[in-house]
Amino acid sequence: MEKLAADKFGRIGEIIPEDVLSILVHDPFNPIKDKMIVAYQDQDGIFRYASIENCSGDEKPSSFLSIDIGETEMKQVQLLDILFFPLFRTKDSQNRGAVSLFVGERSQEHTSGESDKNSESFINDDKKFARDLKEIFDDVRKKLEGNYKLLKHEEKSWLKFVRRMLFTWHPDKNPGFEDKATEVVKFIQNEVERIEKGLPPDNDRSYSDFGNFREDFFRDCNDSAREQRYERHNYYQHFQRQRNQEDFEQNYDFQWNVPPSFKTNNLEAARLCLEVAKSHLKASKDNLNAGHNMVAAYMCRMVVEMCVKSVELTCTRTYTKTHDIKQIIVSLPEMEIKEDLLVAWRENVPNILKNYSDIFYKGLNRYTGEDPREFFQLHQGEIKEGIKQVDRDFVNICEDHLLKFENNC
Q1: Residues 312, 319 contacting (CB under 8 angstroms)
Q2: Average pLDDT over residues 326-351
């Protein structure tokens, strides 16, 4: 039994911590192999640990492949929906935990000529910048043109590919090579415009400005890369400080090439979420007493969501940006309150309060003639009972849970 457990990564399907997201590799041409642990981005934009299953290794960015995300069946996803971890484990069994991390990023303590017994764990992988700009431009153009032919009828997938290319070459993702990286990003932006407009290549064209073409898209990519640079730098500092500790390799998942997280919770944000939940609870009661039943139902539903996200913040730095409460609870690590929340959500919360959209857009998503105000007026008793259940089964137990963390600080 122990052998079987050791042969499977134990956190498949769990949400990837915020700090680890900042170091993911975006290169859509990154080599892949069977049982490789990757980051899968689901339809809600949430990244989860996943395992690649039954791949050939010759897949293109547009290819589909099977991954295990902890569900009963394998999931077919496009390669563009997975990102990669930047860790590398040596084949030497006695050096099983040695990893390489952060191309071109070395902290001052490791650049002053000081010897480091683990320096061999870090390799310099800057080959893509060893070529001159013309060679890089030719290679990037070939990849953009080839994948546009495959994805031009799937705009969402095409933009994912472009985003991945931009992040691969972005100056904020390639410290030490900012000048060259900036030129490549400008080239990508202009090539995307040229390719989408069906224009021929122009080697004499200036790539100093891409105008207003897809301005919002490129600005979003640029802002995201810039934000991640700060987080990435902080992660690297944590890694450098802790990697020489005796038990560092044993405590993390280096055998699976999965980097550790150094951000375990955000108790200040958890407390704020819970206090907001209490305010929502009062607003729900006040609106019910005033006869505003639809608003009361909505506010009560938000109490549940904020309570669950408060619990989530006791084990991660950011809460999940989704209204799917069951999904958030299921994704929590194993802890005593997890089962309590699942039971409370399944058995004690009235169905009228469970679906965010059914409250917010009742009778409006599809016109049926039903007035949502009248509907919630008829179900006033269920709402009143739901408020009591939510107060007891969510606010109170989440308060007790959070206090345990705060008292241990």
Answers
A1: yes
A2: 88
pLDDT at 224 over 70: yes
Give tens-digit pLDDT for 316-328.
777 777 888 988 8
CA distance 271 to 317: 13
Measure the CA angle with vertex 29, ends 25 and 32; round to 5°.
80
Q: And the tokens for 214?
A: 């897809």
Q: At 288, is the secondary structure helix, strand, or coil?
A: helix
| Predicted pLDDT of residue 179 | 93
Give φ, ψ of 111 to 5 degrees.
-120, 10
Percent helix / strand / coil, the chain, rounded to 5: 55, 5, 40
d(CA 156, CA 164): 12
Q: Which residue from 49, 85, 51, 83 is spatially nearest to 68, judged by alpha carbons?
A: 51
Q: Which helix (H) or strand (E) holds 75?
A: strand 75-78
Report which DSSP code applies to 71. Answer: S
For 255, the 3-state DSSP assignment is helix
Note the pLDDT tens digit of each residue in 168-178.
999 998 888 99
Which class for 6: exposed (0-12), middle (13-18), buried (19 or more C-beta within 10 A)? exposed
